[in-house]
Every structure is written in structure tokens, then in C-alpha cells.
User: Fold this.
Amino acid sequence: MEWELEEIISWWDRVYARTLEVAQAVPAEWLDWRPTPEEFSPADLIRHLASTELMNLARLGSGKLAYGGHGPEHGRTKAEVIAYLEECHAQAVALLRQRGESGLSHPVPTNQGSIAGWRVLVGMLEHEIHHRSQLCSYLSRLGISPPPLYGLYVEELPTT
Assistant:
């Protein structure tokens, strides 16, 4: 199946919009909370998602992994953390547009051989969805209802 670049970017933007909504639902006073001392905080997770978008898109061009980190140097306040997420996403989309459709089929080296560029994007989105779910679990654990995934909670779905 072949997709056009703008179709992929549109799909990615919709996934990202749901992630941004969950990130924005984290109250500022809970940004640094951790379920256990060794786990990521909500702020760490949001900064991690941002940095890995840039890492994966840069990888399409160079084939090299360079993780920017998830520490407070990428934002301490809620506004700064959200701004970092938004900036990284905008930069990553711009990088994908620069690579063009050829970047989707261009082989990217991995530690297990090479894969097509589109597979890097799919893996990145799977990673994002995993961590978005983790943020939703954190919110639930804190007694905060996470935003519904597609505008409805499962309890609101019609039954037969």
C-alpha cells in the first residue's frame, strides 16, 4: 500500500493532536509526580515524546540515532513542556516534508538491519501511543479523567 506524504502527515497530526490533548490535561502541580522514584514523571514523558519525534525524523536523513533527552532543560513549567512538545512536532513535520516521499522508502539502518523509512514513522507512532496511554494511566491514578480518545468514553458508545 502506498500513501502520499501529505496523507501520512495528516494521520500523524491527528495522532499528535490526541497526545497533545492528554499532555495538556496534566495539571501543572502533577508534572513532576512519579508513580515510583525510578519511573518517568508526566513532564519526562512529554519531553521524551518530543525528543523522540525529532530523533526519528533526523534518523530518516542520517540513519543515526541522537536522542535529545527528556530532562528539565527542555522545560520546567507546564507551558514550557507543552511548548517543547509543539516545537519538536513542528520541526519533525518540517523534516519529513524536507525528506519528501522518497524518505518513506529510503532504507534506514537499524541494529537489526535496515528498514524502509515509513517503518520508522510507524514505530515512532506506536511509541507515542504507548506513552500517551501511560500518561492516561497516570491521570487516572491521580483521580483525573483523561480526555476521551475519539471524543467519547467507552461507556458512551451505543450498545446493540
The first strand starts at residue 107 and ends at 110. The CA atoms of residues 56 and 124 lie 7 Å apart. The mean pLDDT is 92. The radius of gyration is 17 Å.
